[in-house]
Amino acid sequence: MFTGEKSEAILRLLLAMISGGILGYERSSKRIDAGFRTHIIVCMSSCAIMITNIHTYLFYGTGDPMRMPAQVISGVGFLGAGCILVTAHQRIKGVTTAAGIWAAACLGLCIGAGDYIVAVLVMAMVLLTMTVLRNVDDRIVTKTKYMRLYMELESVSAITEFIKYLREQKARVTEMETIDNAVSDSIAIVISIRLERADSLKNVIARCEQLKGVIFASEL
Fold first, then answer.
1. C-alpha 81 chain-centroid distance
2. pLDDT at 2
3. Which of 31, 35, 113, 220 is found 20 to 30 A from 206 (Cα to Cα)?
4. What are the start-end ranges of the H helices in the chain?
5. Spatial distance between the Cα atoms of 50 and 66, rounded to a whole number of angstroms
6. Domains, the chain, ordered by start
7. C-alpha torsion angle, residues 28, 30, 31, 33 (rounded to 10)
8. Is 162 helix (H, G, I), strand (E, B) or coil?
9. 110-115: Cβ within 8 A, 24+ apart
């Protein structure tokens, strides 16, 4: 690699470090483990892979310049999957962080390929999605007709009474599944309902927890 090429490689790695750090800082600010350093490492490593692959292709004149980057895209999925957790109440967490790690890898590949304009746009748009559009997402789900709840009830008869209550409220059960509850002897269910009118999830959960036989209710 010539001097000019080395300078360009260093520039790309530094830009990848900064870009990954910007995305990771947003995650770290929310006290998420896969945050600042993780995004930097993923972005810089992806950039290095892209630089190495392009250099190898140009130096030897053979091979596929997209082979190694393709492996990065699929391989980083394992790292992202490790960030996705299912809580004791069957609530899924970490999906946004997993997507952010995958985006950091894509960002590194763009920078490694020298496509700076696309890289900057991707970084800005992902950051915008993680911050500003989060408020939009919250507003979308503030009031909705469709809800998916995790509930713990005292007995089977309590489930029957709860479904009866939903019918009285003209709500329709679209799906219901009984799941193992290792925490207590109560019966745990995951239920999907469709309300007659859009309502706040917080209000629905509050009303459910006031019903006889309902121990706990939470969104999924």
1. 9
2. 46
3. 31
4. 3-28, 36-60, 67-81, 95-112, 116-130, 132-142, 156-168, 201-209
5. 8
6. 3-130 (no CATH), 142-219 (3.30.70.260)
7. -50
8. helix
9. 111/12, 111/15, 111/16, 111/19, 111/43, 111/47, 111/50, 112/12, 112/16, 112/46, 112/47, 112/48, 112/49, 112/50, 112/51, 112/54, 112/69, 113/50, 113/54, 114/8, 114/12
Alpha-carbon distances of 103 from 42, 53, 55, 61, 87, rounded to whole Å: 9, 20, 23, 30, 25
Query: Hey, what amino acid is at 168?
Result: E
Q: What is the mean pLDDT of residues 42-70?
A: 84
Among 92, 81, 110, 113, smallest CA distance to 19 is for 110
pLDDT at 171 over 80: yes
Among the listed residues 19, 4, 6, the one whose alpha carbon sits nearest the alpha carbon of residue 115: 19
The residue type found at 182 is A
**Alpha-carbon distance 70 to 199, whole Å?**
44
Please state, in angstroms and rounded to a whole number, the distance separating the CA atoms of residues 217 and 152. 7
Count of positions (residues) in the chain: 220
* Amino acid symbol at 204: V
Read off the pTM. 0.63
- At 130-168, the pLDDT tens digits run 888 777 766 766 678 888 888 889 888 899 889 999 998
